[in-house]
Amino acid sequence: MKTLTKSLCAALIAMLLPAVAAAEIPWPPELPGGKPSLVIEGEQLLKPKVELKEGVTIAKTPPRVEFHYYDCQTYEGKPWSVWGDGLVANGKYYSAVGDHLSPGGNAYVYEFNPESGILHKLTDLRSVLARPEGHYTPGKIHSALGMGQDGWIYFSTHRGSTKIALDPKNHFEGDWIMKVNPADGKAAVVAAQPLAMQCLPTGTLDAERMIWYAGSADGLNKKEPQFLAYDIRKGEILYTDGQGPYRAMMQSSSTGMMYFHGGSEPEGKGLSAERELYRFDPRKPGKPQKTGAKAGLRAASEETPQGTIYTIDGDGLWSFDVKTEKAESLGGTVVATKDYITSLDADPTGRYLYYIPGAHGGAENDGTPIVQYDVRSKSKKVICFLHPSLEKATGYTPIGSFSSALSADGSTLFVTWNGAHSIADKTKKAPFQSVAMTAIRIPKSERQTSD
Length: 451
Known about the structure:
Elements: H1 6-16, E1 38-40, E2 57-58, E3 64-69, E4 87-89, E5 92-98, E6 107-113, E7 118-124, H2 125-129, E8 146-147, E9 153-156, E10 176-180, E11 187-192, E12 198-206, E13 211-218, E14 227-231, E15 236-241, E16 249-251, E17 258-260, E18 275-280, E19 289-295, E20 299-300, E21 308-312, E22 317-321, E23 326-331, E24 345-346, E25 352-355, E26 369-374, E27 379-385, H3 389-394, E28 397-406, E29 412-420, E30 434-441
């Protein structure tokens, strides 16, 4: 896919995500009977909506799916949406959602406790930043969430509309690196506008070395993404230059190396998006170096016990050995028709990967499949299809996700959804309307590690 200007991207998104009148959806959205959550089980979760590609299998035992709405949705967003990847830490799932409003938007960080079944808000940006009326406040958390050694969760912020910086009345100067303590919900600014006039949509934490890495988006839509390495302990920029990542990075927890595609957005997608990876070494801060390894990189897994990081881009999957810095193409990811994947999770054994095609909408056309990839056999299995089962039970259609995370034992996949409440015309793309969360309990028989 050729690089589009940010203004054109905004126009396309506006056409794809039509505004929905507040009267059509009750704010906050509620489950039938006003219940705080709902459980979906049964064989209907294993029924495909469309024909699957050859070789794709379906699980034999359906999972147990628990559903929740985010309770911050007391007013209409433009739209309510999730854009950054979540995480699991200390047995709990952390995620971020936002209202996408601008110039005065808001975004929220949540904690889900799978033992109590409670999804509750930890913090929101407006209350922490306390910006003057009319001044820019971010409507999105587009970065990944990361928990540091200090127990705080770190993230960076992003605008809603791409045009806010063009009007001086909005007082846009850049975005923030922030943190929140899940123990008490206290939140604070780590760095205000570390890169002037830059949003920070791409971001991830090196928890061991306490470095926040980011790829920026220019507020005035003139510059290419910048690269930022921010030393949290010292409270200062470790390194920055003008060749940053557009969408994703991959971080080796064992070596500390950060890898990404530098420069312009790749041509094409999937296997055609395979590009050379650059390496940044925090021990020797300086211009990132070419590795010679090529892979697609729209999303990356954690490093596995085998020292492997897996990356994904469209209908393409790669493995990357952090010791040898060699990459290998593993083939396709598509199970039906959709191929845009923005979150990739590895199980604790390093054998299974989980992902959801159709991140930016349209997942429901494939039945919103939850996919398990076996790296040993290079095979794809659908753990369940959430559509239309969720729609029938709740009135909610999960149309795509940018946030998923796997429990430490590999038994539960947590997903935050962009979704629709009503699809008037089934032939058209469903609109983003509200956000919800599922905890998908994967049967043990579907994640056995022995052959």
